């Protein structure tokens, strides 16, 4: 049943406006209809797994060091399923927003937040445009951080591989530059269906790398009880940031959902989200715990560096829309490369990106969105539940950001001496 229309101030779009006009107002383009090629269940699952398993999983050993032998796996599992729950909140809110306004397709993350706040309690309506910009800002910061970490990871891994063959002429920064062309070409792909073969190949190689890592982790395992069960309290925020960083796909949830051939198979009990995230949580926990047990306090920001040497649209519309988009993506790629070239502390940067961007997108905006979207029916338990999630999220942001910045400052000061 459709909800009763709610009047809003004259400065905001109201439900009395037609759905097409509202969507056009939100998106800055004409009408809600988008090109929808339709990806299959398996293809979407591959994208979901690839979106969540990347360099972050190789940093899970470092996360466990900052959490402890018991606190690490337990905390990572808890944060993983909490992240999954928040993904369900996001999808349900997008469904409700689309239903309220009779959209042909589901809105994206920022659109969902904006229209959710616009339709919410009167006190939230004036925040709708600000919240949309805030979500987009955090999406850019987080994805840019992911890209920078990927580039540094590639450069350091290539440097180690070349060193095996006695080649020491290329620094990490120079090796990062060699990836400019292939990475730039990948940014020009807009369609998830086109990326299916790339995701398949990437998942195969990632899985092979994980098997190799696990093999060396389980060879000659030392006594695990030599390690602390719970790390020092001042390291826990670093664990939180790195753990959240490893669950990287919150920004991809609605794009994947929107492009599914049968969206009903995305968020059911045996849907893409539950199956994909369960696999991701298990793999992160197993790789992280085994890496920490095997290498102990010597674990590096990426466990691959521990392995033995033998392994290793506000503006527009534009007249030339395609070329404007290409130039914009090239500009963003250049920024990512510049940042990657100037970031010397991989582990701390992972924690910082996870604490600021990842936590905001995964644990703050979804519960806020549920509170404003379903404010008429949410009930006391629903309010309490979301307040708890928000408390966890804000605590993680504050403590994780402080701890990561403090570690970066200390290492920078050490490098000066």
Can you put this structure into words, describing what you see?
With 417 residues, this protein is mainly α. Mean pLDDT is 80; it is low at 1-22 and 27-36. It is globular, with a radius of gyration of 22 Å. The chain has helices at 19-27, 41-52, 55-58, 60-67, 71-101, 109-119, 122-125, 128-164, 172-177, 180-187, 196-218, 236-246, 253-259, 272-295, 321-342, 346-373, 379-416. Helices cover 68% and strands 0% of the residues.
Feature tags:
mainly alpha, disordered N terminus, 417 residues
pLDDT under 50 segments (min length 5)? 1-22, 27-36
Question: Looking at the chains present, what oligomeric state does this protein adopt?
Answer: single chain
Give the overall form.
globular
| Topology, number of strands | 0
Report the portion of residues in β strands.
under 5%
What distance lies between the first and last C-alpha atoms, to the nearest angstrom? 68 Å
Tell me the Rg in angstroms.
22 Å
Question: Treating each run of at least 4 consecutive H or I residues as one helix, how many helices?
Answer: 17
Helix content: 55-70%
Query: What structural class is derived from the secondary structure elements?
Result: mainly alpha
Sheet with the most strands, sense and barrel status: none
SSE topology string: HHHHHHHHHHHHHHHHH
Could you report the average pLDDT, rounded to the nearest whole number?
80
């Amino acid at each position: 049943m459709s909800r009763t229309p709610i009047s809003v101030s004259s400065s905001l779009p109201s439900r009395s406006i037609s759905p097409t006009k509202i969507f056009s107002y939100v998106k800055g383009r004409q009408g809600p209809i988008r090109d929808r090629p339709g990806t299959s269940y398996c293809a979407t699952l591959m994208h979901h797994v690839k979106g969540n398993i990347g360099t972050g999983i190789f940093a899970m050993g470092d996360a466990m060091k900052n959490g402890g032998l018991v606190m690490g796996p337990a905390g990572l599992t808890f944060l993983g399923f909490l992240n999954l729950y928040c993904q369900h909140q996001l999808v349900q809110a997008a469904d409700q927003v689309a239903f309220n306004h009779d959209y042909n397709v589901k809105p994206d993350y920022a659109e969902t937040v904006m229209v959710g706040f616009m339709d919410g309690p009167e006190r939230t309506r004036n925040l709708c445009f600000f919240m949309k910009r805030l979500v987009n800002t955090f999406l850019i910061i987080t994805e840019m951080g992911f890209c920078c970490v990927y580039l540094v990871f590639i450069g350091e891994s290539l440097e180690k591989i070349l060193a095996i063959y006695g080649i020491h002429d290329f620094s990490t920064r120079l090796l990062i530059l060699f990836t400019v062309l292939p990475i730039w070409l990948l940014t020009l792909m807009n369609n998830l269906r086109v990326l299916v073969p790339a995701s398949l190949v990437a998942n195969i190689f990632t899985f092979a790398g994980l098997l190799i890592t696990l093999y060396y982790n389980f060879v000659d395992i030392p006594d695990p009880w030599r390690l602390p069960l719970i790390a020092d309290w001042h390291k826990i925020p670093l664990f939180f940031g790195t753990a959240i960083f490893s669950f990287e796909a919150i920004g991809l949830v609605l794009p994947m959902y929107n492009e599914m051939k049968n969206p009903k198979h995305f968020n059911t009990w045996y849907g893409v989200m539950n199956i994909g995230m369960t696999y991701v949580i298990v793999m992160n926990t197993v790789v992280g715990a085994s890496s920490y047990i095997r290498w102990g306090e010597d674990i590096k920001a990426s466990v691959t560096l521990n392995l033995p040497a033998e392994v290793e649209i506000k503006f527009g519309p534009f007249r030339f829309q395609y070329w404007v988009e290409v130039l914009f993506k090239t500009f963003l790629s250049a920024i990512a490369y510049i940042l990657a070239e100037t970031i010397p502390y991989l582990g701390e940067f992972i924690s910082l990106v996870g604490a600021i961007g990842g936590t905001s997108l995964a644990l703050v905006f979804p519960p806020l969105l549920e509170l404003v979207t379903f404010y008429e029916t949410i009930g006391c338990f629903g309010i309490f539940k979301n307040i708890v999630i928000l408390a966890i999220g804000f605590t993680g942001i504050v403590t994780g950001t402080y701890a990561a910045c403090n570690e970066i400052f200390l290492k920078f000061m050490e490098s000066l001496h």
